[in-house]
Each structure stands twice: as structure tokens, then as C-alpha cells.
Amino acid sequence: MNALPDTATSGPEKPGPAVGAAPAKSGEPAPAGRTRRHRDATLPPWAFVVPALLVYAVVVLYPSLAGVVYAFTDWSGVGDFAFVGLDNFRTLLNDDRALESVSNTLLLTLAVVVVQNGIGLLLALGVNANIRSRSLLRVIFFAPAVVSPVMVAFLWKYVYNPDNGAGLNGILGALGLGGLRQDWLGNPSLALWSVAAMVVWQYAGYSMVIFLAGLQGVPAELHEAARIDGAGTWQRFRYVTWPLLAPALTINLMLSTIGGLKLFDQVYAATNGGPGTSSETLSTVLYKEAFVFGKFGYSTAVALVLALFVAAVSLVQLRYLRAREVTA
Length: 328
Hints:
By secondary structure, the chain is mainly α. Helices cover about 65% and strands about 0% of the residues. The protein has helices at about 30-40, 50-70, 85-95, 95-125, 135-140, 150-160, 165-175, 190-215, 220-230, 235-245, 245-260, 265-270, 280-290, 295-325. Helix 4 (about 95-125) packs parallel to helix 8 (about 190-215), helix 11 runs antiparallel to helix 14 (about 295-325) and helix 13 runs antiparallel to helix 14. The protein starts with about 30 loop residues before the first helix and ends with a helix. The relative contact order is 0.12.
């Protein structure tokens, strides 16, 4: 008889490759089926944008479009409403208080734009110089810009305290200038300018930072070449620095103009539009019409006019300023 093979002493058999199958190679890509399933499980890029767009639509787009509709109604904030056509806009044109607020808004914006950017430019030139304390000065000048506007308004209400021994009046008295003491927020001829000074104090440092970024973008070689040609400090600023500051000037003018036209917090917290209507702005008018008098339809008409006015001024300003910009 033939002897059987000894399987007890031999190792376990390793399965060989299937008949007709090629051996797998190292680094070979995954099968096509697995790659397709992986690709199908990946979300398309627009899926990540949809949640943000939904929030934006609910929080911004819908209220804005609804406000445009309500501007043509007599809505009181609750209940039903009826369309009144252009009646709200006719009322606005015949509303002396609203027309005075337009004048106040333009004057306030003009004062803020001119003084804030002028002081911001001077501060930027100062802290851009090679002085030891320039970093500390930058922080000090910029600090008011991060404070709440309402908090700034209450702070300046103390500065403008009408008592002779308090705030600004107390400082004037201590300096022997008691004749200059005023009721700064209670005087109809001074209230608007007092608010403007408050806004300039808060945001001049913000303008400084933008101008400072522009100054540091001016190539030093241009200043050196101008100095070699005999240009003085004023000539270097006028013919080298100032033209290259045009982009920073555009940003500052745009931001300060838009901020001035829609200014509300400081005015409402400091004067509530008073005394009388001497510091009333369009923003305070539309707030009072809605939440004090319950005329939401009329207030949204005022808001629509304000929004269109701000957009028109901004576009004209942007086009003009962009045309003047130069690059190094």
C-alpha cells in the first residue's frame, strides 16, 4: 500500500490566488466602485453655503423687503394694514420735523467727516514718526473706538454737565475761562455740535489706524529720492505721501460719511434729539415714529428714504474718490 502524506508535520496551507486573477500590487488605487461611493458621499460645495444663506435671508433679506412693502401702508406695528400708496412719502415732504432732521443729519455728517479725518490724519502722521512711545500712543488713540457708543454718550453727558464745577465747565473755570462755560447739551445752538465732538473723539483713532496703514505702504525709496532732489517735509507730504494716501482716504471718507448719515446711538443717548428738535436726525425720527407714536408704516418710509440716500451718496462718493487714486 502507498503511504499517505504526513499533513500533521507540514504547515497550514496558504490560499493561493484565484484562478485567472492578477496578483495585487503595492500602491494600486482602490477599486472604481469604492472611489465612486466615496465621491457620492461628499457634499457639494454649495451645501456649506446654504445654512448661512438661510440665516441671512431670514435676518436681513426678509425684513428689508418687508420694510419696503410696509413703507406703502398704514401699518401700526400690529394687526392688519392697508396700502396707502405714496401718502407716507407726501407726509414726509410736509413734515417740518423730518425736514429739519435732514438738515441736522447733513450738518452733523459734514462736521464728523471733515474733523474726524483731519484729526485722524494728524494722529497717523504723529504716531508714524520714529518715537519711543508710538506703540502706546496708537493704543491710547484707538481705544475709544472699541467702546460702546451708548457708554461713550453717557460718559460725555458727564463731561457736558451744565454745573459750573463739573466736567468741562469745571475745567474751564479752573483755567480762568469761566466765561466760556455753557449748557452744552441744553443749548439748541450747541447741542448738535456737542454730539459731533463726541463722535469725533470716539472715532478719530479709527481713522488714524486706516491712515497709518496707508502711510506704511508708501515706499521709503520715493521719500529718499524726493529728499535727494531737495524736497522739504511739506513738499514730500504733498507730492509723495498725499497722492499715495488716496485709497486710505477713500475708505475713511466712505466709513465716516455712512456712519454720520445713519448716526443714532450717541444722539439718542445724549440728547434724545433735543432740546426741541435741534439735534434730531433721520435715525431718531424714524425710531420715534415707530416705537413712540406707533406709525410703523411712516417710519419704514423714512427708513427707505434714508437707505436710498445713503446708497446714492456712497456710490457717487466712491466713484469720485476711486478716480483720484494712484498707485506707487
